[in-house]
Amino acid sequence: MAGRKQFTIERQQIYRGHKGSVFGLEISADEQWMYTSGDDGVVAAWDLRLAREEGKGLLKVPHAIYTLVTDQAGRFLMAGSTDGTVYQLDLKTGKLLQQYRKWNHAVYGLKVDESRNRLLILYAEGQLGVLQLDNFQEIGFQRIDEGHLRTCLIGPDSRQYIFGTSNRHIVVMDAASGEIQRKWLAHDPSVFCLAMHQDGRYLLSGGRDAQIKVWDIKQDFRESKRIAAHMYTVNDLAIFQGGDFFASASRDKTIKLWDAYAFDLQKVIDHERNESHTHSVNRIKCLITDNSLISCSDDRMLMRWKVEVQE
Predict the structure, then answer these.
(1) pLDDT class of 1 with cuts at 50, 70, 90
(2) In whole angstroms, how far apart are CA 50 and each of 34, 45, 53, 57, 251?
(3) Which helix (H) or strand (E) holds 4?
(4) pLDDT tens digits, residue range 14-67?
């Protein structure tokens, strides 16, 4: 097993302005812009090149917005609301282009399938909506599971969609046909997050059981590793550039850094040692440009962390 590396963690920036918990966190493909949303129904944009605490409001709606996603070309920003509405914003003008509402249950996740120009909408009660990205025309709508659809990944070869649900399942679907290829009990009682290992060999999952699990894709998603990772729910996972390390965020208010091959704990970021978040850490994103980490929390703040590793 690999030994523990020496990590230097420095908090670079705090971003304030949201009036409630921050749930949505998305970074533009060029890593110039950060987009956020939360309980206050506000979607905000932040220029990551500038050391400013407050962002610019792009959208204000009467319901909480749990999830955000952009396309790789940087044309659109999509936001999913707790009343089932999905909004599409033009990122060049900041204007609202379109909105779609078919299912009156919360949108927990959004995912863009670039290869098919599709937007996947993950609803409460296990429904999946599929829209054409450009015109927001409905392509499909089907039930995937009895539980809420919490998270989604696109498989390494873009042929599969992989979902995590609140009914303990990970579900693998054929992206072309919509056929369910595999479904298994993964976490008890809920799967909250998924991440793909850099080499495409392993699928990582985090759940309400406070565990991180590693699934071997080449071995028909056989469980390869089980980690007692946190005290409470694992809310999010993010892979660092290069794939040697990954981060986990939890309801226990901590961020943890892990070796992506030995799956050993390397570093804990918490309030006591790092002046980190004082409430649940809901989302994290790793930036390629400077290997930094951005986190958002129920404490209404976002934080940017400089992460350096000494071999």
Answers:
(1) very low
(2) 11, 12, 9, 16, 29
(3) none
(4) 999 999 999 999 999 999 999 999 999 999 999 999 988 889 999 999 999 999
Look up residue 134 and give its two tokens: 């450009």
Backbone angles phi, psi at 20, to 5 degrees: -155, -175
> Which amino acid, residue 52?
R
DSSP for 249-279 reads EETTS-EEEEETTT--EEEEE-HHHH---SS
24 three-state secondary structure: strand
Residue pLDDT, tens place only, 128-162? 999 999 999 999 999 999 999 999 999 988 999 99
Helix (H) / strand (E) element for 217: namely none
Q: What is the pLDDT of residues 272-281, one digit of tens each?
A: 999 999 999 9
DSSP 148-210: -EEEEEE-TTSSEEEEEETTSEEEEEETTT--EEEEEE-SSS-EEEEEE-TTSSEEEEEETTS
Distance of CA 109 to the CA centre of its chain: 8
Give the tokens for residue 75. Answer: 């044309």
Does this model's pTM top 0.90? My answer is yes
C-alpha–C-alpha distance, residues 202 and 217, integer Å = 6
- 22 within 8 A of 301, measured Cβ to Cβ: yes
